[in-house]
Amino acid sequence: MKVMLIALLVIVVLFFLAQGFIMRATRKTESHAYTVLKTYPSFEIRNYKPALFSYVVMQSGSYKAVSNKGFSALAGYIFGGNEEKQQIAMTTPVTMIMADSVTMKFKIPEGMDLATIPKPDNENVRFAAEPEKVVAAITFDGWASDERIAEYTLKLKQLLSENNIAYIGDFSFLGYNPPFEMVNRRNEVVVEVKF
Question: Quick count: other Cβ atoms within 10 Å of Cβ 169?
Answer without folding.
Answer: 11
